[in-house]
Design brief:
The strands form 2 sheets. A 5-stranded mixed sheet has the order 2-1-5-3-4. Strands 6-7 form a two-stranded antiparallel ribbon. By secondary structure, the protein is of the alpha+beta class. The chain has 2 domains: 3-110, Ubiquitin-like (UB roll), CATH 3.10.20; 117-247, Alpha-helical ferredoxin (Fumarate Reductase Iron-sulfur Protein, Chain B, domain 2). The chain contains 9 helices and 7 strands; from the N terminus they run E-E-H-E-E-E-E-E-H-H-H-H-H-H-H-H. Bound molecules: iron/sulfur cluster (SF4) and FE2/S2 (inorganic) cluster (FES). FE2/S2 (inorganic) cluster (FES) binds at residues 56-59, 61-66, 82-84. FE2/S2 (inorganic) cluster binds next to loops.
Length: 249
């Protein structure tokens, strides 16, 4: 396949960025989208041009770092997959493909297609954990019975990989789907209930402090989420927040 790529190039966080056009040749339909970008970068290096910077790590849908906006969609066409799981057979020979970084005030561009998502880390640090004294007194994992329905819902919430597609998709750049998944995975389990009130208040306060917008209620985040995180988690987080606000008043 021969393709035309329109790619956002930006030398540094403060530099003016622009879309640049690159032809790329020799692309196989079975290549992943990131492998296609590897081919482009090899061709750029041979020509003495600077390769395109993009974020990636696992390349198997686990780490959440391959954050690309492709033809106006977070993680490109297709549902339930990350950019690294997108294959070039989703495109046709001769296509023009637009590739941009996540667009959100709380995710500033570092360079080209790579953004800074450390705002998510600070939200987790604000409460996305449980405090357990493990000094020689660790309980067996099966010692606390948990209803299967709760365990399944907690596990589903825990599949969030922190990619940020929900933020990039939302017109308000809201992080509600991400934060609600992280609140839910602990709120549903007995181990997480001890610190539940402080957790939801702290994580929501940090989310607001980072500059994420409010929920639009359009559900676009759920549609574009590669892990199928449900809006049900946002409803649960709102209930958790209301209860916490009342009891800690
Ligand atoms: S909720 Fe979905 S889209 Fe948002 S960060 Fe988690 S996995 Fe990514
Ligand atoms: S590179 Fe890890 S999820 Fe895509």
């Amino acid at each position: 396949m021969n393709l035309t790529l329109k790619i956002w190039r930006q030398a540094s966080p403060k530099a003016q960025g622009a879309m640049k056009t690159y032809p790329v040749s020799g692309i196989e339909p079975d290549m992943s989208f990131l492998e296609m970008l590897d081919v482009l970068n090899e061709q750029l290096v041979v020509k003495g041009e600077e390769p395109v910077v993009f974020d990636h790590d696992c390349r198997e849908g686990i780490c959440g770092s391959c954050s690309l906006y492709i033809n106006g969609e977070a993680h490109g066409p297709g549902r339930g997959i990350t950019t690294c799981q997108l294959h070039m057979r989703s495109f046709k020979d001769g296509d023009t493909i637009y590739i941009e970084p996540w667009r959100a005030k709380a995710f500033p561009v570092i360079k080209d297609l790579m953004v800074d998502r450390s705002a998510f880390d600070r939200i987790i640090a604000a409460g996305g954990y449980i405090s357990v004294n493990t000094s020689g007194n660790t309980l067996d994992a099966n010692a606390i019975p948990i209803p299967k329905e709760d365990a399944d819902k907690a596990f589903d919430a825990a599949t969030c990989i922190g990619c940020g597609a929900c933020v990039a998709t939302c017109k308000n750049s809201s992080a509600m789907l991400f934060v609600s998944a992280k609140v839910s995975q602990l709120a549903l389990l007995p181990q997480g209930k001890v610190e539940a009130n402080e957790r939801v208040l702290s994580m929501v306060a940090q989310m607001d402090a980072e500059g994420f917008g409010s929920c639009t209620n359009t559900g676009a985040c759920e549609v574009e989420c590669p892990k199928g995180i449900s809006l049900e988690n946002i409803a649960r987080m709102n209930r958790e927040y209301l209860r916490a606000a009342v009891v800690t008043e």
